[in-house]
Automatic annotation (TrEMBL):
The gene is 110680448. InterPro entries: ATPase_AAA_core, N-DRC_Component, P-loop_NTPase. GO terms for molecular function: ATP binding; ATP hydrolysis activity. Residues 61-98, 188-217 are annotated as: Disordered. This is ATPase AAA-type core domain-containing protein. Residues 297-411 form the ATPase AAA-type core domain. It comes from Aedes aegypti (Yellowfever mosquito). Residues 188-213 have a biased composition (Basic residues).
């Protein structure tokens, strides 16, 4: 405290000796004593120059003042013109960059703010800090990893200085006023107490850009524990099995490139590619700068692993699962739905990362409610879902909305699309996927002998769901059957007979039934629409090319 006071008093003395005056004391909001210590206040010579200019300003005539005002106005206009020219140059540069991107492809400059991710900024800051603080420190001799006491002392000094600064400011401001009074008395001038300088107000934003009022907290009078317990009682917050995305078994579509580029087809993502798509959406394992969706819906017939994928998403993101499926929400009345959604949103922000799951999401947007489900009123949640939940999820929130659907065509397309950013259609099982499923199921139970007809079995069971295939293995290879394996080896026929012995018999999904999924997906998904347009353009170009070649032959 004494060191700071002595420094400020020396500043008073310097001003008195050189300028025979005292400069105003900096306000607390400006920095107070810190400005004086850093040397960011006026020097005596600068102070005298300011006073001289003020005296000259008073002596100026009206004409001189008018000329100066005009000169300032012209200078402002020139400044505006320069800014306009700079903006135009920037636009030109951006146009050139876009043209280059079209010719050479997109480039990534991490110095530009649009490409600088939080991770990149953190790394840059860490490198700068290392170069400033750690570069010259040799830690090889510090085997016990003792702290650097000099740094700790400096930090503590800074803390003490921050605590004492307001007290020192108040004392020295009083001393400055006493010195000013004495100076006025010596110069036989009237003493005027220094007026405190007001802090400049920040400019308000443009009209029309008013901040949105935050929705009132409907559960402000309740504790977090009570809300948590209520959601558990309602089975909204629930546990899930520890699955992984790689547990979703399926092969890749190795002919997709040829189909897309040479046969002008638009093949769906194979079951193996579903894993990669989900990883891209969740962890950003794709092109740089690709935005991650805050909501998506998985489309597939029953038994295709939608629940497994939801559980894998929760497990791999270490998220809390909130279940808002029609079956879970059924006991809640339509009047209580907004309160329930408010509770879910509030708790999901507190417990984030969170996954909000809606199983059979199409039921929320039924075109026509089936008579058997009319009493449950499944559409009551769909009426307020977008406004009360989807719209309220912010970019910074670690909240993901995941839906699943086995009959998406029964829902109103517009409302369904509004609530889910993306749709992912899980394809029918092909030869590669069925082979992997049979191999996985059998190797867990008994292993596969060389004589076992795995390839024909995989070919015949194309279209059967993973649940049906794995169920066949589980039910056929019971304990008694496994005991007889040495005498009666397992045959592919046994596994096929399982499907026919069920009541009713189990068959794979037909192309006609699966076509409903593909039609909905191509209408709902933005990328599917874009691919369809691209194929139409290619077909038109090929038709023109063929017509030209036919003319040449003639």
């Amino acid at each position: 405290m004494e060191d700071i006071s002595d420094h400020i008093r020396a500043w008073f003395r310097e001003f008195y000796d050189q300028a025979h005056a005292f400069d105003r004391y900096p306000e607390i909001w400006e920095g107070g004593t810190i400005l004086v210590i850093k040397g960011e206040t006026l020097t005596p010579d600068e102070y005298m120059e300011v006073q001289r200019k003020k005296a000259l300003e008073k002596l100026k005539s009206a004409e001189q003042k008018k000329k100066e005002a005009e000169a300032k106005k012209k200078a402002k206009e020139l400044e505006k013109e320069k800014k306009k020219a700079a903006k135009e140059k920037l636009r030109e540069r951006r146009r050139e960059e876009k043209e280059l991107e079209k010719k050479e492809g997109k480039t990534y400059d991490f110095k530009k703010p649009e490409f600088a991710t939080n991770a990149y900024i953190t790394i840059e800051e860490s490198i700068a800090r290392y170069e400033k603080d750690w570069y010259f420190i040799d830690e090889l001799e510090n085997e016990d990893e003792l702290p650097i006491m000099e740094w700790i002392t400096l930090d503590k000094f800074a803390e003490v200085h921050q605590e004492l600064r307001p007290i020192v400011d108040e004392v020295l401001r009083g001393e400055r006023e006493l010195l000013q009074k004495a100076l006025c008395k010596d110069n036989k001038k009237k003493y005027k107490p220094a007026k405190p300088k007001k802090e400049k107000r920040k400019r308000k934003g443009k009209k029309g850009k008013k901040k949105k009022k935050e929705a009132p907290d409907l559960t402000a009078d309740r504790t977090i524990d009570s809300l948590y317990e209520e959601l558990i009682e309602k089975s909204v917050i629930r546990t899930y099995k520890k699955k992984k995305i790689d547990d979703f078994i399926g092969d890749y579509n190795y002919a997709a490139y040829e189909k897309r580029n040479f046969l002008l087809q638009d093949p769906l993502a194979a079951m193996g590619e579903v894993r990669d798509i989900l990883k891209t959406w969740l962890f950003g394992m794709g092109p740089l700068g690709l935005p991650k969706p805050k909501s998506f819906c998985l489309l597939a017939p029953p038994g295709y692993g939608k629940t497994l994928l939801v559980e894998a998403i929760c497990n791999e993101t270490d998220a809390v699962l909130f279940d808002l499926s029609p079956a879970t929400v059924a006991p809640t009345s339509a009047a209580e739905i907004p309160l329930l959604l408010h509770m879910v949103l509030k708790m999901s922000r507190i417990l984030q990362p969170t996954v909000i799951c809606i199983d059979e999401a199409h039921k929320l947007f039924y075109k026509k409610i089936p008579p058997g489900e009319a009493s449950l009123d499944p559409t009551k949640l769909g009426k307020v879902l977008f406004k009360q939940l989807v719209k309220q999820i912010k970019k910074d929130d670690k909240i993901l909305l995941v839906g699943t659907s086995s009959q998406p065509w029964t829902a109103k397309m517009g409302k369904f699309k509004k609530c889910f950013e993306k749709f992912l259609l899980i394809p029918k099982t092909d030869y590669g996927s069925t082979q992997l499923l049979w191999r996985h199921g059998l190797s867990k139970k008994v292993g596969i002998s060389k004589d076992f007809a795995l390839s024909p079995l995989s070919l015949v069971t194309r279209g059967y769901s993973p649940a049906q295939i794995l169920g066949s293995v589980k039910q056929t290879l019971g304990l008694r059957r496994r005991m007889r394996l040495t005498r009666e080896p397992l045959t592919a026929q046994e596994l096929l007979e399982y499907f026919l012995k069920q009541t009713p018999p189990e068959y794979p999904i037909t192309d006609k039934e699966y076509l409903k999924f593909t039609k909905f997906y191509k209408k709902a998904d933005k990328l599917a629409k874009q691919r369809a347009k691209m194929l139409q353009i290619r077909e038109a170009e090929l038709a023109k090319q063929k017509a030209k070649e036919a003319k040449k032959k003639k």
